[in-house]
């Protein structure tokens, strides 16, 4: 039974990495990712700092809802 749980964890991590990779690949085509109010960009001469606060909060809420939906389905 321990191998069944390990298998589920490996599948979940694989799906998460796939979704994360797709988001990174197509992030410039998704209109709201990284351009929400609350995403801070600081630019100086040779330095740019990007802090996506609002995008991070939005993704956190979406992932929390999805994981709660999946894990409560047991």
Order of helices and strands: HEEH
Helix content: 55-70%
Q: Sheet bearing the most strands, described? A: 2 strands, antiparallel
| Number of individual domains | 2
How do the strands and helices of this protein lay out in sequence?
Layout: H1 2-25, E1 39-43, E2 48-52, H2 53-71
Antiparallel strand pairs: 1-2
Structural account:
The chain has 74 residues and is α+β, with helices and mostly antiparallel strands. The chain folds into 2 domains: 1-30; 31-74. The chain contains 2 helices and 2 strands. The chain has helices spanning 2-25, 53-71; strands at 39-43, 48-52. A two-stranded antiparallel ribbon has the order 1-2. The longest helix is centred in the N-terminal third of the chain and has 24 residues, at 2-25. The chain is elongated and about 60 Å long. It starts with a helix and ends with a helix. The model has no long low-confidence stretch (mean pLDDT 82).
Structure described in brief:
The protein has 74 residues and is an alpha+beta fold. Helices cover 58% and strands 14% of the residues.
Features:
single chain, alpha+beta, two-stranded antiparallel ribbon, elongated
